[in-house]
Design brief:
The model is unreliable at 1-7 (pLDDT under 50). α1 packs parallel to α7 (214-231), α3 (62-76) packs antiparallel against α8 and α4 (103-120) runs antiparallel to α8 (243-250). This protein has helices at residues 2-39, 45-49, 62-76, 103-120, 142-156, 171-187, 214-231, 243-250, 271-274, and strands spanning 42-43, 53-57, 81-87, 128-133, 160-164, 193-197, 234-238, 281-287. With 295 residues, it is of the alpha/beta class. The protein has one domain (20-287): 3-Layer(aba) Sandwich (Rossmann fold). An eight-stranded mixed beta sheet has the order 1-7-8-6-5-2-3-4, with helices on both faces. The chain binds zinc ion. The site of zinc ion (ZN) has 6 residues, from loops.
Length: 295
Amino acid sequence: MSIPADVPSRKIGVKELRKAFWDRAEKSACTIFRWVLRAKSQDMTEAVKTRPALILAPHADDETLGCGGIIALKRQAGTQVTVAIATDGSASHRHERWLTTTKEQLIALREVETRTACEALGMSPEGVRFLGFKDSELANQVADLSEAILALIRQTQPREVYVCAEVDGHPDHVALAQAAHLAMQNLSDPRVDLFEYPVWSFDFRSWRHQGKTNTLGFLFGVRDMMRTAFSWRMRSVSIGPVLRIKTEALYAHRSQLGDYPQEPHWSGLPDAFLDHFLRNTETFRHVPPVQKGSE
Ligand SMILES: [Zn+2]
């Protein structure tokens, strides 16, 4: 009688083992990616403190994950920083079980969380902008986004613009990066530097090739990841003195960390993913300027 019962459990065991193997392999690849980016980066800690900046984030929390340290360093030095959140946050957790939170409440909640996080980083309320584009739909709005970014640059006069990486696997991240590249191309001002901060690039789903076997999808993903890492011109900033502030700011995004009492079933960003950001160094890709009409 025990044989039929054992068969499915053995199948589940093998499946779980394979999943654990690929999870470990993917996490290791992402860690090596971070090491390579860090190892080939040139330090710009002192220069960064005094240069006014515009931080472009596709979603509330990306600004803190990718740039929390430099925002805090700049604000401690009295440097002007503008944070612009592109989407309204309404699509967060939409695949999970909704209990009581409406879309309107979610939009309001994420704005409050962002304001709390940015206040912890030393931002004034006027420095935080919400562009209000519909969450998960940036890919259809690149031209409008680009115009909004260009207007923000002209208004706030930054010397540095930061945006998520174009290779981040999330469509909103890709679209915002494309919009920022386009805005910089139209601005064509050599005094303004563009930097990308990787977020979902530290999640192997951004790299895995779909429609292939596990092994091939993984190997092609690692190849692309390493080609990217070695082709990027990297800069780093030591954020040790403000890491506690960045951590505090990140934990203000409670709904994204699964710490939202009104929806106890919501998942949060996993600790292994957060670990890429709560470190003593932030790394950025310095994007080479593209002149108008040179593509
Ligand atoms: Zn995001």
